[in-house]
Fold this sequence. Notes:
With 473 residues, chain A is an alpha+beta fold.
Amino acid sequence: MAERIQIHPVTRVEGHAKISIYVDDAGEVTSAQFHVTEFRGFEKLCEGRPFHEMPGLMSRICGICPISHILASSKAGDMLLGVEIPRAAAKQRRLVNHAQILQSHALSFFHLSAPDLFLGMDAPPSKRNIFGMLEGDADFVRRGIRLRQFGQRIIELVGGKKIHPAWGAPGGVLQAIGAAERDEIRSSIPEAIESLHEALGRLKRVLDSFAVEIEHLGNFPTLFLGTVSPEGELEYYDGLIRIGDAEGNIVADGLDPLRYASYLGEASEEWSFMKLPHYKPLGYPGGLYRVGPLARLNIAKSAGTPLANREMTEFKQRGKGAVCQSFHYHLARLIEMLHAVESIEQLADDPDLMREHVRAQAGQNRHHGVGSCEAPRGTLFHDYEVDDHGLIRRANLLIATSQNNLAMNQTVEQAARYFVSSRAIQEGMLNRVEAGIRCFDPCLSCSTHAFGQASFIIEIRNAAGDLLQQITR
Amino acid sequence: MNVNTLQIDRKMVTGREGDAIFAVAWEHGIHIPRLCHIGGLSDVGACRLCMVEIEGQKRLQASCLTPIQEGMVVRTDTPRLRQHRKLIVELLLAERNHICSVCVADGACELQSLAAALGIDHVRFRYRFPTLPVDTSHERFGLDHNRCILCTRCVRVCDEIEGAHTWDVCGRGANSLIISDLGEPWGESESCTSCGKCVQVCPTGALFDKGKTIAEMRRDRGFLKYIVTARKEKQWIG
Amino acid sequence: MAYQSLRDSDAQIENFNRANTVNLPRQTHLSAVLRLAQIGSIMGSGGLIVMDETSCMVDVARFFMEFCMDESCGKCIPCRAGTVQMHDILRRITTGEANEDDLEMLKTLSDLLRETSLCGLGQTAPNPVISTLKYFPQEYEAHIHEKRCPAGHCHMTAAGQEVAS
Ligand code: SF4
Ligand code: SF4
Ligand code: SF4
């Protein structure tokens, strides 16, 4: 009898999700889907509100990466004002964005993924978590926690608050940075770099034991999308969009984020609340692309900072052309963290950072503004249309996790086909399917603008759609 | 000038004859809560937060409108009064859309700080969630009806101090709304001089400087004392 | 004569308090009604409403609260916002969606409006609630606990049924 296996709720991801695995009469997996079952509708909520409120309002979408929303929203606001923001403000925003990448990646790597990576996919679930890690190697875990704290501390020092700082605004930021804050940031850099070297070393040492997972968890050709600097280096705050293919060729370059709608389409399917973005010239679902750490490392030619550069050169050798194995999101994440720490150091030494003038004043000069930046999980777009008096008429958010939606679906299907047989379902099989999702570190709250606690369901269904087995955690 | 002596919260205090209990209490460090009162403007006794118990009187009295009397015994902070005040603030929070975390006045709002002072950590009423407009037609200021508590400070300051009388209240009951002139968008008001006084006296995030983002709105009310004493005493002190 | 009828009305009032009903004999003198203040009512504009057991007392209270809510001028908060919330609670009692806490809140709000409203409208707005609660508590309880309207007037909604189960 054909069946469907559901994994619901998916654990150790941010948000609420369900995986359905369809099996045929022979017990072979025929297809699998990754559903997002929450819905929030932030875009609707913004209508009629002044655009100046958006950075603060939008940052409430998410408790993990509020900074990215503040940045994209403030940048859309800058555009509505039609101003170039003061240098100090731009540097502050860059600094905080790197801090955000650091803390978010640290959470993903050390708290959520390290148990799989260092305890093994088949370790008992009761041990396969951060507490199990603590028993084994407390020092390493503590380093991870401190890395995350470092990122959060920077956000707190610059923004005044750890989670939802009132800091970014259209035209710049709210307050200047002091010398004491800058010095505190500087003082933590050596330890952070040391921790990242250790983590990189450890991850690279265990990678060989995951050859099967690397091969079968989301290993397929797609396009890769991200922001690059004018020099083609890693860029997170302000740049143009580049799209590369699996062979490592540049498919499109110098795309203006403002015109994202002209090259990115958004399809929707009834089985998920998440939008399904794709590269328009190749259509849906052919225009499948990935964003985030893996994509950024694939499209950029180099990192732009020495330590990360070295790692990146080595990283690029893992693929023929681009690195297509989603498992390498983990490695990419660590390299990005290294780059973030190096960039933080550069910014802390930059005299512009301390300037007093942090906000450009202007009235509203445009009716349409788009802001984009690289969030930890990928490229983020905020798109606002406002009326003559600055009230939002239409808002559209294109979120990193939803851009990875199609790829996550393929990953789930690929993983299910390889690892799952409905004959004898073992916990470790399903954990691998989940781990496939965790490569992307999806943040489902943002991408559906939904709320709820992290939970994950896997269900197994037959071809008729009858539920045969359900695993909830 | 006659002076009356009375007791407020077991403290013997004196005040000028004709002064309101509220003013005398504040002068003596007894801070009776209020939202519609603001020093320098006339009092309307609308918010009912300043109500006090007076010995020998069955009814509670709004202290901003009740003159002191010789030998009066006043209580400003009894369990009954606290319960009433809590309810009134909860009623206000449920009446419109107060989501402090995304409000321009977050951290500098009289409604918010009063709620905190009264220990309100949740609202026992059903939120009404009315759909109300935001008027940002004025070049420099905005009015968000979602955060207005209808205290009429703006109405009074514009009428009594600026002399423009741009603001008024239209409708009644829960449908009351602050309007400029005869209901035109503020930006089209002919009477408004754009002085900004209303924005400075508003207790909540309802009136704000345009362009302010979340938690950025801060107010300066020094002008009230300055203008009022200048007018009354012909003295220009801040 | 006048003295006599006043004595009669005292007896009526006692009777009322005991039985929660007033059995006014034919041709009762209006002076009996004039002592309505003692049973918590007022004469108002001189109108008198006659009801029987098919009138739901909760719905009657809701009706009067709706009137006060609509007529509130909106100047003071207890009356402007309090009548709205009292009306909402009364409405939810009539649809079976209310619980014991709502009943408590109804009483608490009654005190608030009576004691703190700026004018007579708000001060007396809770009166129909206070007196129906006093004389017909079992009607409130039937709505809240049994999701049933003794007068057969109120229609319990699905939401109300859910609360009950
Ligand atoms: S006006 Fe005051 S109470 Fe209302 S949302 Fe703003 S800060 Fe909160
Ligand atoms: S800005 Fe001045 S004149 Fe205009 S409405 Fe406010 S107080 Fe009145
Ligand atoms: S706009 Fe402000 S000052 Fe005017 S009535 Fe509303 S809350 Fe009071």
